[in-house]
Write a structure and sequence with these properties.
4 helices, alpha+beta, single chain, paralog of FGE (formylglycine-generating enzyme)
Length: 264
C-alpha cells in the first residue's frame, strides 16, 4: 500500500462538453483532507481465498479467471466489504464495516475508523486523474492509449470479444496478473484496466449544488454500488475515462476490488 502525499483536491465527475460524457457524472468539488493509504494493485484470487477458501472466480468462454495471481472477480460488494473486515482482524485493526440487519448490507461505521475498507469514489477518481494533472484517462489525455497503458480489449482480444481497440495491443486476452499492470503517477496500478472495481459509495446521481465535499464516502442504503475503472472487456473511449461511473450489485466477470484505509 502507499500513502498518498500529494494534494488530491479537485473535481470528481465530468464537465459539460467532455467527449463521451454520461449523464450520471455530475461534477462536484471534493477535498480529501484525512490521510489515507490505498493498495497499489487489485486483490488477487490467492489473497481472497485466504479469507474464503471455496471462492472460484469462474471462467469467461475459454479463459480461466481463477488463477491465483489474477484479480478476484465474481463477488458482490458485500463480499469485498467482508474481506476488508477479515483483513483488518488479521492485522489487529478495527472493523471498518458492520452488518446492518435492517438493510441486510454491510455499512461503514460512523465515524469511519482506520480499518480496511474500499476506496471511496472520490479517492479512486482523484488518484486516477493524477491529482492536479486532472487526466481525462488514467494514462493521460489521448486515445487510443499508448503501448502497455493497461490490460484493455486490444487486438489480441479479437478471438474473445466482439469489439476491441484497433491499433492497440495489451499483454493479455482476458485478465492478467494483478502485479503485471503499469503504475499511474501515484504508483497505483490497474486503474486503466484488467478489472473494474467496486468502490465504497452507494450509487446515486449526485447533486451539483453545495460547496466542496470533505472526505465524502457517498450515500448509504442504496440498492446499487459504484463501479470505477476500465477492464479487459472495455474498448470505448467513453467507458475508459477517469470520470466514468457504472453501478451494480451482482457478481461480474470483470469487477474486482482493492483495499484502502485511513491512517488516523
Amino acid at each position: 500500500m502507499i500513502q498518498v502525499e500529494q494534494p488530491l483536491n479537485g473535481i470528481v465527475g465530468s464537465e459539460r462538453g467532455e467527449t463521451g460524457r454520461y449523464g450520471n457524472e455530475t461534477p462536484r468539488e471534493v477535498e480529501l483532507r484525512r490521510p489515507f493509504k490505498i493498495a497499489t494493485r487489485h486483490v488477487t484470487n490467492a489473497e481472497f481465498r485466504k479469507f474464503r477458501p471455496e471462492h472460484n472466480s469462474g471462467r469467461f468462454r475459454n479463459v480461466d479467471l481463477n488463477k491465483d495471481e489474477f484479480p478476484v472477480v465474481n463477488l458482490t460488494w458485500n463480499d469485498a466489504a467482508r474481506y476488508c473486515n477479515w483483513l483488518s482482524a488479521e492485522e489487529g485493526l478495527p472493523a471498518a464495516y458492520f452488518w446492518d440487519v435492517d438493510t441486510e448490507r454491510m455499512r461503514l461505521v460512523d465515524p469511519p475508523n482506520t480499518g480496511y475498507r474500499l476506496p471511496t469514489e472520490a479517492e479512486w477518481e482523484r488518484i486516477a486523474r493524477g491529482g492536479a494533472e486532472n487526466r481525462l484517462f488514467p494514462w493521460g489525455p489521448g486515445f487510443p492509449p499508448p503501448d502497455s497503458a493497461g490490460n484493455l480489449a486490444g487486438e489480441e482480444s479479437e478471438p474473445l470479444l466482439p469489439r476491441f481497440i484497433r491499433g492497440y495491443r495489451a499483454k493479455h486476452a482476458g485478465p492478467g496478473p494483478a502485479a503485471d499492470e503499469p503504475p499511474t503517477a501515484f504508483g497505483v496500478t490497474g486503474l486503466s484496466g484488467n478489472v473494474s472495481e467496486w468502490v465504497h459509495d452507494g450509487y446515486e446521481i449526485p447533486s451539483a449544488f453545495g460547496g466542496p465535499q470533505v472526505d465524502p464516502t457517498g450515500p448509504t442504503n442504496r440498492p446499487f454500488y459504484v463501479i470505477k475503472g476500465g477492464s479487459w472487456r472495455d474498448f470505448a473511449p467513453a467507458d475508459l475515462r477517469s470520470a466514468r461511473r457504472r453501478f451494480g450489485n451482482n457478481p461480474q466477470v470483470d469487477v474486482g476490488f482493492r483495499v484502502a484505509r485511513y491512517v488516523e
